[in-house]
Amino acid sequence: MNKTAIYVTxxxxxSSFASCREESDMAYMQQLQDSVFAxxxxxxxxxxxxxxxxxxxxxxxxxxxxxxxxxxxxxxxxVALGAMALRIFGDGNLLKSGRLVxxxxxxxxxxxxxxxxxSDMKIDSLKKASGGK
Length: 133
Fold this sequence. Notes:
Strand content: 15-25%
Order of helices and strands: HEEHHEEH
Number of helices: 4
Helix content: 40-55%
Distance between the termini: 41 Å
Mean pLDDT: 83
Oligomer: single chain
Structural class: alpha+beta
């Protein structure tokens, strides 16, 4: 094989792998979104999920009732959502951190809504507690 053929083959394999990984990530994000709606029926009007570099996860919930919860309860919900995300993304995921943002806007599609209240999902602690990296 000449160098060009090897290069083209290598690029096709890498592109195919990246495409499969993207589809897999999208499936996980859809499953996480569906799980959030199932876990909070009638409480959540919008869910926006944004993975950053496959290591950091931002989830924004448009949920006026949850927005008004005490900080301690929002933090508990964030940790519960972090555990849910780790279960969905499975062993070997690259997640290192996560942030759950609450907003009153039930139609929110922004990563950082103006009225957003953020809570740490404690992904790193959850992974360590479960024996993960």
